[in-house]
What we know:
Layout: H1 4-24, H2 44-50, H3 56-59, E1 70-72, E2 77-80, E3 86-89, H4 95-100, H5 108-111, E4 113-114, E5 122-123, E6 130-138, H6 140-144, H7 153-172, E7 177-184, E8 189-198, E9 200-206, H8 209-212, H9 216-219, E10 231-237, E11 251-252, E12 271-276, H10 287-316, H11 320-325, H12 327-350, H13 352-369, H14 373-390, H15 393-401, H16 406-420, H17 437-445, H18 453-468, H19 477-484, H20 492-505, H21 511-518, H22 522-526, H23 531-574, E13 588-593, E14 597-600, E15 603-605, E16 608-610, H24 611-617, H25 628-635, E17 649-654, E18 666-668, E19 674-681, E20 699-703, H26 704-714, H27 718-723
Antiparallel strand pairs: 1-2, 2-3, 3-10, 4-9, 5-9, 6-8, 7-8, 9-10, 10-11, 12-13, 12-18, 14-15, 16-17, 17-20, 18-19, 19-20
Helix pairs in contact: 1-23, 7-23, 10-12, 10-13, 10-18, 14-23, 15-18, 16-23, 18-20, 19-23
Amino acid sequence: MPAPDQIIATMTRLNLSLALLMGVATHAFAVEGMWQPHQLPAIEADLQRAGIEVDPKELAKLTRYPMNAVISLGFCTASFVSPMGLVVTNHHCAYGSIQFNSTADRNLLRDGFLARTLGEELAGEPTLRVYVTESITEVSDQVMAALNAEQSGNERYAAIDAKEKALVAECEAPGGYRCDVYVFHGGAQYFLVKQMEIRDVRLVYAPAAAIGKFGGDVDNWIWPRHTGDFAFYRAYVGPDGKPADYSQANVPYRPKSHLKLQPAGLKPGDFAMIAGYPGRTNRYRLSAEVADAISWQYPQLIERYGRLLALIDQHTQGRPDAAIKYASSVASLNNGLKNFQGNLDGFARIDAVATKAAEERQILKWAKAHDQAAGVDGFKGLKELLAETRATRDRDLLLQLLGYSGMYASARDLYRLAIEREKPDAERESGYQSRDEPRLQGRLQQVDRRFDPQVDRALMEYVLGELIALPAAQRIAAVDRWVAGDAAEPTPELLSARLDAFYAQTRLTGSEERMKWFKAERKAIEASDDPALVLIQALTPSLLEIERQTQDRQGRETRYRPEWMATRIAFAAAQGKQIYADANSSLRVTFGNVQGYSPSDAVSYEAFTDLNGILEKHTGTDPFDATAKQLEAIRAGEFGPYAVDGTVPVNFVADLDITGGNSGSPILNARAELVGLAFDMSYESIASGWLFNPALTRAIGVDLRYMLWVMDAVDGAHHLLEEMGVKPAFQ
């Protein structure tokens, strides 16, 4: 007889499946929803009403055009656009590789880069990968079979983890693949995603920062925009056509298909669709979780990120080499800051907590009237878990921020890897298995390009200083002991002295030293007197205990969240509302139409910007410093076949439902042809990750016509245009 937990799990899946079927059979607003490809045929009527001209059943086929041309970089989306493995994505998605190849004497971030031949293409940063999705298979039954009612949180976490690792190992056995189990609806469904992993990815072309980052952090998340946020990579494989490590003998990968470019672009009202890998949304979170985000999470992140940025700026002033090394971190931190503030502003605009709380009251009332006791219990359990996380949240955030120190992160990875290598591979912690070692090695190899001792020391001093200043209940005794030594209490003065010795004596600043320890056994590391390795040894027992506590909560969440989600989904279906899962970095499709919006009273934005806006914004000073060649071409009216009404469209907005991770996603027209790249959301859209607002949510894309014009008239990338099937107009 099945255990009670298995019965509940089976009922949850049945309720979920029924709700999903009911939900997709009813009316769906085209602008909302991040749909899994297999769901698209069920919402064909909505796609057709929006204007699609291709068969949605074709979009559900992962190995057919266009889905097999849409790829992931692991943090952004990209697409194949030629039979020679040419890949297009956003400039900001390629920023890490551009920075990795830049120096003060050869500043590709500022000046841009164009490889005229295959031989001139530059290796991307060592952890860069291209992932080509080949299959998505539901494995819910296999995962659920490992669970029972008697399991503690840690036992439940371990059971799910073991089953996922077994599924992944079997999937990756042929070699050349990266497989992962993705969680949907809080743990009510699990899907195994199989992706070809291409490990040799090279930088081909990136416009100058004055184009690729025009407007910089001032315009970030803001509409109207005039940013040429695009860049190109190329994927390489071994001579046998299989994924291989970087080698001069490798050859361009030949994808099964590549996106067709449509230089005619779009116009207001046209159908638009995005296929990509959105990172994370929180639309089914509790009102209490929204309240915590408003009162603690975002204010804390704003304060902490602001402090990190100030320290980086202070310690890179007048030091261009150091500034380049931290350019990618600065861009990421600034982007985060604006996102956090945008969420707070958005929450205030829509009264998110009250809206969520009212919705919960409706669901709970409905659940009690429709035999949904498990959902009520799940709701209560989630609130209890939330209360637990509040007790240590300040400490936990600071431990995350400690990872901004290259020395701390390197020592942490080296020692943890040595610990995990003593176990059978299936029992090693995720992130430290054999499959993860190439990425760990790549991270360690590139530290030199992203590390400066002066900056690193300042970041570490700030975070450790905050840790020793926490209330007693959140303090980490091992940190206090490391700082204070024989003294009774840690102080800022003791911390400063400790860090002086730390950075004077550690040898992990050298790549050869890090690679030596990468290959070392645990006992060798524990015998080292390197202060970075001594520190991490002192902290690791505490870090492992914190990890165990976190996993216990996560294990319990996999009981409560699916119960609550099944009830939520059943309620939504009963109301005739659409059903889709929160974003989780898996392949999704969103669709809608090109249209402007009104962000406030008496303010109305059109759907397109053009080259005239670049002239209007240009000041000659960063970040509004268009290149001389670009200004010359605009003023001369050299627009060629890319012109529309005497200018060239630059950016546009559409009511497409996207989030972080969608950066670089192809924007497709009604015939699934490439017409642009998604690179941002409007500022008013940011809070839609928690609560969707159809009137204000807009995705911002760079128009293909602008991309082609820059490549043709400004940068002379004629060979790339020809490779993509576009005849240059300015040779």
